[in-house]
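agent> Task received from the user: take the single chain below, predict its 3D structure, and emit structure tokens. No templates, no multimer pairing.
agent> Plan: (1) validate residues, (2) run structure prediction, (3) serialize to tokens, (4) report one or two observations.
agent> Step 1 OK, no nonstandard residues flagged.
tool_call: predict_structure(input=
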Amino acid sequence: QVQLVESGGGLVQPGGSLKLSCAASGAIFSITTMGWYRQAPGKQRELVASIISGGDTNYADSLEGRFAISRDSANHTVYLQMNLLKPEDTAVYYCNAATEDELGAHDNWGQGTQVTVSS
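)
tool_result: status=success, residues=119
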């Protein structure tokens, strides 16, 4: 299993920036993809951005280039830089690590970090 610990959420004004961090531990050798998801009140959890082992990234179309996912492979940490934040970005942000082992594919989740965009 992989353990994920997120940090960096908080309250920010519209137009501001935040950087989320997700530190992975445990069976990190089995990770194939890491990503950030978010869930706003009353809505389904949605993919924000992901990065695969080879470094390719994927983003939700709705972000309009405002967010950037990156990683520090040496420290097994993934980051989400969020710029030009909007009130509709308010959500709980979850880190995800997809892993594969002899039993198949698995999803591992962090505890979530609240991001609130409000004036």
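agent> Step 4: summary for the user.
The chain has no helices and eleven strands.
agent> Done.
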